Amino acid sequence: MARRAPELHPRLIMDPEIHPIAQRVVSAILTAITDGSLLDDDPLPSSRSLAESHGISRSSVVQAYETLAGLGVVRSVHGSGTTVCPGARSLLDSGAAPSPAPTSEPDSTKRTLNLTVPADMHEAALDQREWNRAWRRAIAPDCSRSGPQDLIAALHKHLRSFRGMTFAPEQVVLRPSIGSVVADIVHSAELRGQGIVVEDPGYPRIQRHFIDHGCRVRCLPVDEHGLRIDMLTGTDRAVHVTPARQWPTGVTMSEQRRRELLDWSVRTGGLIIENDLDAEFVFGRAPEPTLFSMAPPGAQVVYLGSPAKLLSSELAVVWLITNPGFHRRAEDLAPVSDFPARALAHFISSGALYRHRNRALSLCQERRDALLKQLTKVVPEVQALGEPSGTEIVLQLPDGADELAVQMQLERSGYQVSALGDFAMRPRHHALLLHYGALTPSAARGFAQCLQRALAKSCARSAS
Questions:
Q1: Which pLDDT does position 390 carry in this prediction?
Q2: What is the CATH code for 21-94?
Q3: Phi first, then psi: what are they for 170, rounded to 5°?
Q4: Which residues face 76 on adjacent strands?
Q5: What CATH number is given for 144-350 in this structure?
Q6: Contact predicate 21/60, CB 8 Å
Q7: CA 156, CA 248: separation in Å to the nearest integer?
Q8: 3-class DSSP string for the chain
Q9: How would you class 284 by CB atoms within 10 Å of its CB: exposed for 0-12, middle for 13-18, buried for 19 or more?
Q10: Of 130, 163, 447, 448, which has the highest C-beta tally within 10 A?
């Protein structure tokens, strides 16, 4: 499959104090033009690319580009992207360009609720006393073992109990980031220059990490049973999957697809990279068994996990459970910090993680149920896709609705959401994607009402 060439972004300095976010983008681009970082006819990144690189919504970037076009400093040509207008710097230096109009409602007291994804679990579920206790234990003098050694021992028990996994402690690799784990996998499996399959839609960061390490990434679609295993080819050397709960659609990979994927690995020697990040957020039942634990002799499976979603991405701890033939890189190439590892080990071993997960699941279910109840009442034409799980939800929009226009209107109303298409190479649904874990039950009705108004405006514009 042909892929887009990577974009080279101009150096844009975003001032976090400027609100709304669209105005922040406008200010950054105007500054880049006046200081010479952007010259006449220079291309600007696509709205999707700029949004991903700065962790903001695509609708904010689209609003900013529209504002800049109105000022006469950029121009957009369908099929050719957005470029700096000739003479833009002179126009700005002379003061002839009008001041940019506010890009949102003038009420300065309005705060935008960030419901974009990916996101960590809401801190309301965390018992701060137990978390602080784990950190106090981590800094107490104890030279018997290092923090990583403590964490490996805790993970060995936790994954055996929670996920039914059997492995030796020496099969565990701890790293501070997904990127460093990808480097380990590419090195061990000799994947540089080789084909690797990822899910579509899926994690953009995972795709970028594999591309950065020299892999040829191919995106295969996900349906109601999970990844389309029948579309794998002889040139695919590895597959990255999220079988327990596909991110972001919420689909659980069927048992048949799991067997087909494991059979593929046995037949071809291909590597399965099982990302289990969302298994913690399966509601009402135990998550399906891991591919790692189901693997028959000859199947090559490595298991990837992290506390990022359940606790915090700032912990900087990722674990990889390897197969026996895995060629490890030196630990000191990307070591895990001792204190965070020890704190997490105490949090797991004390049972605090189990209690925290139960609170997080209850909180998520409560907020998901409240949101769906209000959507059913206020805007029944919007359908929730996927299974009741996870901290994000896919909302299928009715025919005729433009998800980007709906996104922009919601942001003007104080709700920043993602579009499912932002995470897909070949978007198949007109749908929004939002982190409902940050939406309290009392705020759910207000969101549903704003979504109803945004849909009405979008559909009216499409009909005109």
A1: 85
A2: 1.10.10.10
A3: -70, -5
A4: 82
A5: 3.40.640.10
A6: yes
A7: 28
A8: CCCCCCCCCCCCCCCCCCCCHHHHHHHHHHHHHHCCCCCCCCECCCHHHHHHHHCCCHHHHHHHHHHHHHHCCEEEECCCEEEECCCHHHHHHHCCCCCCCCCCCCCCCCCCEECCCCCCCCHHHCCHHHHHHHHHHHHCCCCCCCHHHHHHHHHHHHHHHHHCCCCCHHHEEEECCHHHHHHHHHHHHCCCCCEEEEEECCCHHHHHHHHHCCCEEEEEEEECCEECHHHCCCCEEEEEECCCCCCCCCCCCCHHHHHHHHHHHHHHCCEEEEECHHHHHECCCCCCCCHHHHCCCCCEEEEEECCCCCCCHHHCCEEEECCCCCCCCCHHHCCCCHHHHHHHHHHHHCCHHHHHHHHHHHHHHHHHHHHHHHHHHHCCCCEEECCCECCCEEEECCCCCCHHHHHHHHHHCCEECEEHHHHCCCCCCCEEEECHHHCCHHHHHHHHHHHHHHHHHHHHHHHC
A9: exposed
A10: 447
Q: Which two three-digit tokens encode residue 277?
A: 């990040």
Asked if 364 and 281 touch (Cβ cutoff 8 Å), the reply is yes
Per-residue pLDDT of 424-455, as tens digits, reads: 887 777 899 999 888 888 899 999 999 999 99
Please tell me the pTM assigned to this model. 0.78
The dihedrals phi and psi of 220, each to the nearest 5 degrees, come to: -115, 145
CATH number of this structure's domain 113-122+357-463: 3.90.1150.10
Neighbours of 436 (CB within 10 A): 24
Peptide bond preceding 201 in cis form (omega within 30 of 0): yes
Sheet holding 318-321, edge to edge: 172-175, 318-321, 300-305, 271-275, 236-241, 195-200, 216-223, 226-227
- Supply 379's token pair: 């805007």
Q: State the amino acid at position 280 in one-letter form.
A: E
Given a cut of 90, is residue 9 above it in pLDDT?
A: no
Please tell me the distance from the alpha carbon of residue 342 to that of residue 417, in angstroms, as a whole number.
35
- Distance between start and end Cα atoms, the chain: 37
Structure confidence by residue, pLDDT tens digits, 364-381:
999 999 999 999 999 999
**Identity of residue 379:** V
Residue 220 vs residues 182, 228, 231, 424: alpha-carbon distances, Å: 19, 7, 7, 10
Query: Given a cut of 90, is residue 63 above it in pLDDT?
Result: no
